[in-house]
Design a protein that fits this description.
With 360 residues, this protein is mostly helical. Helices cover 78% and strands 0% of the residues. The radius of gyration is 21 Å and the shape is globular. The chain starts with a helix and ends in a 7-residue tail after the last helix.
């Protein structure tokens, strides 16, 4: 567990696998259950594409049989994270709700903050911003602010959901709180406040200020990676920070810079493997390519992004469609409607021929 918290999931995988072999030889049921859970958690943090939520089914049966309510909640939580990562938002929501019920019964604030973050994030990803607000507010009412830095990711995602709902002032207040809580913390925790401030600057029309703040956020997450932090959450942070900077470069008409930033974002997204994240990143690359001579390729990437979402039944919320609509309009102007539709359809077909598009 300590290795995972230190951002060393690879070492956590090796240590838990070695311990699991010893426990299995000793036929120690409790230790087998614990180490299977740790191994699953480490592989999930490392972005292992072979992780399946049902791997913990036997461990869950053990927890229920022994009446270990907190342990049951933890298992629901990690199965929910795995479901969200694979694109199954409905299962992620169901598991997170069960986790919250178990954590509330055991009074575990750590469990409440983590399960609430995934549940709220899942709801916001499909445009259910009011539902996400209720989840986040319930967690805050349970006292998770007292966890300080542990509450920062929840506050950050709550701020993002309010921003997408059009509640700029609430979002700004939540992002300010992130910054206050992380003033003397690690580079990665400080990333949340910098990103939040950048989003607010962008929403207020200050693109130059937003660019400076996104640059600051990128420096912080690169610092975290240079210090050896390497897990799913950090990789997602790299993806979204690079994508935002690439988007601003595209808006300025800087083709080379936009392509470079969006391509690096895509490289990180492939290491994460989340279908929704990958689709958004493909759309970012398409936007950058639409500025130059690769308009047909850009149209194909838009088709590939749509097919990637469709494979996990994930539509794009209306509040997040503006960039896709803008890039599609630009490509239609450049290619003509017929050519655009042809290339878009080719991109959709590529998803079925190349399911390994999310491979790391």
């Amino acid at each position: 567990m300590l290795l995972i918290r230190e951002g060393r999931p690879g070492d956590g995988i090796a240590a838990s696998a070695a311990g699991l072999r010893i426990a299995e030889n000793a036929e120690d049921e409790a230790e087998i259950a614990r180490l299977r859970t740790v191994n699953f958690q480490a592989r999930l943090a490392a972005g292992d594409p072979s992780v399946r939520p049902d791997e913990l089914a036997q461990v869950e049966e053990y927890a229920v049989r022994h009446g270990e309510r907190w342990y049951e909640g933890m298992l629901h939580h990690y199965r929910g994270v795995a479901a969200f990562t694979s694109g199954d938002v409905a299962e992620a929501q169901s598991r997170s709700e069960q986790a919250l019920e178990a954590f509330a019964a055991s009074g575990d604030r750590w469990g409440i903050v983590n399960a609430s973050e995934i549940l709220g994030h899942s709801l916001a990803s499909i445009g259910e911003y009011e539902g996400a607000r209720r989840v986040y507010e319930r967690a805050l009412a349970a006292g998770v602010r007292g966890l300080h830095e542990e509450a920062v990711p929840l506050l950050y995602h709550y701020g993002l959901s309010r921003l997408r709902a059009g509640d700029l002032e609430a979002a700004a207040s939540l992002f300010d709180e992130c910054e206050r809580l992380t003033e003397r913390e690690s580079a990665f925790l400080r990333w949340h406040g910098a990103m939040g401030a950048a989003h607010i600057a962008l929403a207020r029309g200050d693109s130059d200020g937003a660019a400076r703040l996104f640059d600051r956020a990128l420096s912080l997450v690169r610092e975290a990676v240079a210090e050896g932090l390497d897990n799913r959450v950090v990789r997602v942070a790299m993806v979204v920070t690079l994508r935002e900077l690439g988007h601003l470069a595209e808006q300025r008409g800087e083709e080379a810079g936009a392509v470079r930033l969006q391509q690096e974002s895509l490289d990180w997204a492939r290491r994460v493997g989340e279908p929704r994240l990958l689709a958004r990143t493909l759309e970012g690359v398409a936007g950058a390519l639409s500025l130059g001579e690769r308009a047909a390729e850009a149209a194909r990437l838009l088709g590939l992004a749509e097919a990637t979402r469709a494979a996990v039944h994930a539509g794009l919320p209306e509040a997040e469609r503006i960039d896709v609509t803008r890039v599609s309009s630009r490509l239609r102007d450049r290619l003509g409607d017929e050519r655009f539709e042809t290339e878009f359809a080719r991109g959709r077909a590529e998803r079925s021929r190349s399911p390994a598009v999310t491979s790391r």
